[in-house]
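FAQ: What does the model actually see?

It sees only this:
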Amino acid sequence: MGAQLSLENDQRIKNDWSTLDIDSFMKQFYDADLTQRNDALHRLNDFVRQKETHDKLVIHGIIPALVSIVKQIPEFDIEANPDQSVCARLTCYCLAVLSDSEKYTPEIVEHGAVQPLVKICTLYPKLPIRLHCSRCLYHISESAFLRDEIKEAVKPSLDVIFSLMKDAGKDEKQYWDEILMNTDLVTHQYKPGKAWYDPADFADICKLLEDNYEVIKEEAITHCKEDAMVPWPEKNLYKDGWNVLGMYAFKNKLNGPCQMCPKTTAILEKIPGLQTAIFSTLKPRCHIKPHIGYYQYSEKILRLHMGLVVPQNCVIKVNGEERTWYEGKCLIFDDTFRHEVWNPSYDTTRIILMLDIDYEAKIEDRNPEFFEKSEKQAEDYGLSSDLINVLRTYGTPNNSNFQQRPDKYL
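And it is asked to produce this:
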């Protein structure tokens, strides 16, 4: 019976959408009559649950319409006025759903939503609209290019936010944990342990690569083309623009790319304990979201990057510490720590050589909070048996996004 009702409801929404006069619908959001506005919001609440409606709604101006209401909500008397309460709840919910898509968050910020969303969180601590506002702010904070807006809005209210979080639900706490870490407004959540390593401690490997920088760069520029590369398969970590050309994967030599890059391959063959080697490109304005490495793999390696083509102000942030690449120089870090990358350039693609090299050290000494999950849990996540055989198991701890199966590298 429940399934039948759900299907009937979905069909009702689709029929409503197919006959919608969208221009008249949009006018209701600017109507002074709160009843008319709430009618439109109830319909919108249904529509945004169907992702196929989002682009048309956005093209017709739904985001500025919702933000115009969000700006009014701090003046509402929500607890005394039921109509205003409904209006606030539905508006914040619909904006939060749209914010789930990274392509809409710049427009949400552009129309001035951040300041009122933060203010709503501090004014109405006991109401569910705070969860919707937190969700929207979290998705905005996921973009390295939009964080300054949130940082400046939250700073004056940081004590209030900390106080509210004591009684917040699990989801809301997680949203704010991420917001505060993404904007560097807290540091206590960075993990103990050593995230960055001195290249001088790996002098033989680094000297080999740096001495051959020009040769490696030439092959990378020649072969790092769209038709030769593949998108990094974990699409949950970025919107577009992260491509790779793999030469080694988990100690397995990938013959095609290695034949394309024989000089680089000859250099790689001299590196002891080489697990993985790829050319990695990051297009202008691309951001790789915070994530960590794979279980029962990343704790056995260190990750080395050598800059080949590095636009100005490119950033890699590991466990809260930001660094950049320099062309012909190596960086080494521990992949078990939360890390992210962004290329703020408008016209230059970043290219690096990325290696994973064996490193024997107890994970409890390296990163105490990087824990393992059982093989059964890995299977519960839907991971295939071949990946489990290669990496044994991996999952998602509290401080990272879940990583999908890297099919291209098996």
